[in-house]
Predict the 3D structure of the following.
Amino acid sequence: MATKRDYYETLGVPKNASDDEIKKAYRKLAMKHHPDRNHGDTSKDAEDKFKEVKEAYEMLSDGQKRAAYDQYGHAGVDPNMRGGPGAEGFGGFAEAFGDIFGDVFGGGGRGRAGGGRQVFRGSDLSYAMEITLEEAAEGKEAQIRIPSWDDCGTCKGTGAKPGTKPITCTTCHGAGAVQMRQGFFSVQQTCPTCHGSGKIIPEPCATCHGQGKIKNNKTLEVKIPAGIDDGMRIRSTGNGEPGTNGGPPGDLYIEIRLKKHELFERDGDDLHCVVPVSVTTAALGGEINVPTLKGNAAIDIPDGTQSGKQFRLRGKGIKGVRSSYPGDLYCHVRVETPVKLTEHQRKLLKELDESLKKGGEKHSPTDKGWFDKAKEFFS
């Protein structure tokens, strides 16, 4: 086996070269000899030179390794301490041009950004809560049961069987990521073996099956703000699923569902309701009571009120979460036809009907227009 060249000679720098001079020299040589830039007969020679340049840079860019090399030469450094070429490949190319290309190329995983185990945020959870219209208008405090994840008591959160412990992943050598070459680029991906943790568990804990956590349930106090509407969501920070490898937990989103109300229908901050009115009250006029969310309110019905007539009560709606004043209540009149009449009542209504017919159009303002349209339709 050929004797290794001096690392300083390989990079073409003096022994007293600064870190910046070493990095600059490495970048220049790495660009020149990178296999993706050399094809044909020179590709094998370029690959060997690239590996040689990369090894020299790895030793001289590390303060401790450089000191050992300066004192003892090649005997002072262990060439196997880098974890072998399987995990790194040509990742050093990213280090050579890291300042230019950032994280696009990944990196060799030597404690740089992107090195070490992969940290992931936990998933968010969703919870549907059904409340009444009154509760939505006034707000409320509620308790809900949600899943929680606690450290396994058997393995103390390690995920390994008691008496054993996780070991460094043999695929990524603890980096949590591997390099995948795609043409000229080297892309970093999560390790498929350890899924980014950098560790593997040969003997998983029988209680948590290697997860390190046990799923339980907990009670959470939730404050529903006044004015909340159907479909709105409340976020409870940190009450989602736990993160991976020490990552932050996700959030819990409580989605509001309004129960159907017997009287009211909500439209934003406004409320709508149908108010039944007797024939006599609609004809003669009068005062009627209508329900609101805060008790009854009186409405003056003018004489001759028709079915479908709308009355508006200002400020009797709901004050929305982002509103500065409450909406309105719209009352829609529905004239009710009397049923189960006595003979006397029938006689009175027939007399009234005959009287109205004698009065002509003035008692039925819509009749003439309707009959004219019907006549045109059938003609």
User: Anything to note?
Assistant: Confidence is low (pLDDT under 50) at residues 79-115. The chain has three domains: 7-81, 125-166+201-258, 265-378. The chain is about 25% helix and 25% strand. The CA atoms of residues 8 and 15 lie 6 Å apart.
